[in-house]
Prior knowledge:
Largest sheet: 2 strands, antiparallel
Number of helices: 3
Strand order of the largest sheet: 1-2
Distance between the termini: 34 Å
Amino acid sequence: MKNDPDKIREVVPAHIAYWKNNNFEKYIGGPFADRSGGLISFEAMGLADATAIIEKDPFIVHGLIAEKWIKEWMPEK
Length: 77
């Protein structure tokens, strides 16, 4: 996260609502215990689809993410 605690506090409700209210397939997410960031996992049609979803996250839209990694996960079946 970028060092802008006031803006982060302001955007947190929209960030949480975005992920919880959009019913993304198999969504799970939350902050790290030390509040240094968080992890979000969800199912998408592919990497391009996942990226498009992530780019609409209010934290991204408001420029509050210092670093992000978008990775495709291939769980064992």
